[in-house]
Predict the 3D structure of the following.
Amino acid sequence: MTKPLNIGMIGYGFMGRTHSNAYNRVSNFFDTEYKPVLKAACARNADNVKAFAETWGYESIETDWRKMIARDDIDAVDICVPNNLHKEMAIACAEAGKMILCEKPLAMNVAEGEEMCEAVEKAGVVNTVWYNYRRVPAVTLAKQLIDEGKLGRIFHYRANFLQDWTIADDLPQGGAALWRLDAAAAGSGVTGDLLAHCIDTAIWLNGNVTNVTAMTETFVKERMHNLTGQVEPVGIDDACAFLCHFGNGSLGLFESTRYARGHKALYTFEINGEHGSLKWDLHDLHRLDYFEHGDEGRLRGWRSIHVTDGDHPYMDKWWVPGLQIGYEHTFVHQVADFLEGLSTGKPTNPTFRDALETQKVCDAVLSSAESGQWADVG
Ligand SMILES: NC(=O)c1ccc[n+]([C@@H]2O[C@H](COP(=O)([O-])OP(=O)(O)OC[C@H]3O[C@@H](n4cnc5c(N)ncnc54)[C@H](O)[C@@H]3O)[C@@H](O)[C@H]2O)c1
């Protein structure tokens, strides 16, 4: 007998769609005690949110998120809005006793993130942050191999997240879709938007980051602001690169930019250890490359594992071995794990507290870029 989990969704943009898709599909593939029910969708524009609700199957709409949070028939609230709204909404949800699934980055900065952690912990509400790349089966497999000690001592971790969509200097900042270019809504540029993903995965796979030295650049200094109609200074980082130390003694190298012509979402990481190495590339997300030094010398080389077999993470729930899944499934997996956590009482990682660690690294990166000095994390 399944139990309903009534979802209230805030935001109908990119993430509103990926999450709605995940809630709709999860119970077709994962056998969980709880089943999501799309109870209400909320955004400020009634016509737009009504169209969204009809497309995805929400039972009702709201145009004021506070009204939705106050409803007795909402169990869990999904926060899919720009970063500057996460804190206020999450704290209000915690105070209303709602479970929270919040988009990343957790907050605009560490101070906000700490308030959010305190609020959910004080209220005792179930919480998670959508760092969805943890749930790409190939990335989850990397985690298993590292935890089993297959790489031995880790020496290097390097990651990139490269895009090219903000190169035009007549692209405005602010408002729908372009809030990412507006520091007041986004908090930072590529650091909080893209590197936050790389940092979350890195902490998950390789442990805590202790200190960083970073550089950032804003290539286009002024852009027309959609909300004011004025040309205004650009406050976000267009590009960011940093070096770091991990607590396990390994060295990290991270780069992100929206100015790498030809790259749309090239998220890659590579980890080099004493006994082997791992490589992953979002553009080929169902593959994990693995080099094992212990292989017989004549046969030693990089192997490309097609992560689609039934004994690979999550893959027994999908089609048959050899048939791959994609980006949207990472969100289905996070919902499945969240529902499972409701039954077992096990928190769904990353919790707000876990995601605060990524926020601390982001803040240290921005602080180092500003000072030109190494910065300690936290
Ligand atoms: N996990 C990921 O891979 C990933 C990918 C993209 C975005 N994100 C994160 O998801 C969040 C949303 O990003 P997006 O790409 O979906 O943005 P988007 O611009 O596509 O959508 C934002 C939504 O927020 C709504 N909104 C804005 N202000 C609101 C308010 N006051 N009340 C109610 N609704 C409001 C807008 O109407 C819109 O529907 C951000 O925090 C972003 O960093 C995560």
In short: The two ends are 45 Å apart (CA to CA).
